[in-house]
Amino acid sequence: MNEPAMADRTGAERMGSGSGPARALTIAGSDSGGGAGIQGDLKTFQELGVYGMSAVTAVTAQNSLGVQQAEPMPPRLIAAQLDSVLADLGADAAKTGMVPTPAAAEAIAGVLRRFGVRRLVVDPVRLSKDGFALAGPGAFEATAKLLLPLAELATPNVPEAAALLGVREGELAEIGARVEAARSLLAWGPHYVLLKGGHAQDDACTDILVGAADGGAEPMLLRGPRLPGPGAHGTGCAFAAAACAAMALGRDVPAACRSAKAFVAAALAASFRLGAGTASLNHACGKPKK
Ligand SMILES: Nc1ncnc2c1ncn2[C@@H]1O[C@H](COP(=O)(O)OP(=O)(O)OP(=O)(O)O)[C@@H](O)[C@H]1O
Ligand SMILES: Cc1ncc(CO)c(N)n1
């Protein structure tokens, strides 16, 4: 099949009040609790002014207490959703989150390659906050092997980075070790790695961005005050989705990561308690005021 490259569709006819919005596609699991996954990503896209679309990779039953159950979608149905969106609507940027099985990773990588999706954020999701395996057996490894090479930006947290590098999480406690780790992760193939700092014992919650173009020689450190408490559900997804939204709007990766950091900080500062467990991120109050 001869598919149009995404770039060819960027100028698709736009009707009504002039040019249409930038388009962002999330490829992720459904979170019934509304804070992470598809639901969190679409809220983030909406808040940041881009048109959100989705391909559901799995359905989870979860709430503020944790994940109770998860079922993967059949790979063919994941691929069909991606085909439907990309062949007709197009996307200026996309992000992947929960990839439940190795076959799902294969299906996603195949369609993204076929459509030439270049502005891709890969969030290599492994465990939920309460330790539920969102990536089933072999799926994290398949995501690393098949999706990270397609990524413009990869956004691992500290435990995911440790797993990818085969080191203990404790070895990434110091900022210098995390900069080195981020550099080493470039070997998986993304153009940029943003190593998130939420899990580090770091008062500034430092996120580290390195780029392959200079071999990670000039890391960019994104700092902000660590908000007290256990944080909120969905911060990792919100970061990747906010970066994806900014990339859909044409920003480069460093600018996209700066705005994602500001978005998550604002959404966290405005978070609230709904259930008996972890707080809910307030995506609707997260828009940076600048
Ligand atoms: N307590 C906090 N205060 C301020 N910023 C935070 C806090 N916790 C996390 N962040 C920020 O939130 C973003 C997500 O980081 P984190 O390391 O928590 O991702 P994650 O582990 O993938 O998230 P999740 O726990 O949702 O899976 C980063 O920009 C990080 O710096
Ligand atoms: C569906 C889904 N994706 C990602 C996460 C990680 O926060 C979650 N809890 N649920």
From TrEMBL:
Xref: InterPro entries: HMP/HMP-P_kinase_dom (IPR004399), PM/HMP-P_kinase-1 (IPR013749), Ribokinase-like (IPR029056)
Keywords: Kinase, Thiamine biosynthesis, Transferase
Keyword Lipid metabolism applies: no
This protein's pathway: Cofactor biosynthesis; thiamine diphosphate biosynthesis; 4-amino-2-methyl-5-diphosphomethylpyrimidine from 5-amino-1-(5-phospho-D-ribosyl)imidazole: step 2/3; Cofactor biosynthesis; thiamine diphosphate biosynthesis; 4-amino-2-methyl-5-diphosphomethylpyrimidine from 5-amino-1-(5-phospho-D-ribosyl)imidazole: step 3/3
Residues of the Pyridoxamine kinase/Phosphomethylpyrimidine kinase domain: 31-280
EC number annotated for this UniProt entry: 2.7.1.49, 2.7.4.7
Region named Disordered: 1-28
GO molecular function: hydroxymethylpyrimidine kinase activity; phosphomethylpyrimidine kinase activity
Reaction(s) this enzyme catalyzes, per UniProt: 4-amino-5-hydroxymethyl-2-methylpyrimidine + ATP = 4-amino-2-methyl-5-(phosphooxymethyl)pyrimidine + ADP + H(+); 4-amino-2-methyl-5-(phosphooxymethyl)pyrimidine + ATP = 4-amino-2-methyl-5-(diphosphooxymethyl)pyrimidine + ADP
Alphabetized PANTHER family for the sequence: HYDROXYMETHYLPYRIMIDINE_PHOSPHOMETHYLPYRIMIDINE KINASE THI20-RELATED, PHOSPHOMETHYLPYRIMIDINE KINASE
Family from the record: Belongs to the ThiD family.
Database matches in NCBIfam families: HMP-P_kinase (TIGR00097)
Protein name: Hydroxymethylpyrimidine/phosphomethylpyrimidine kinase
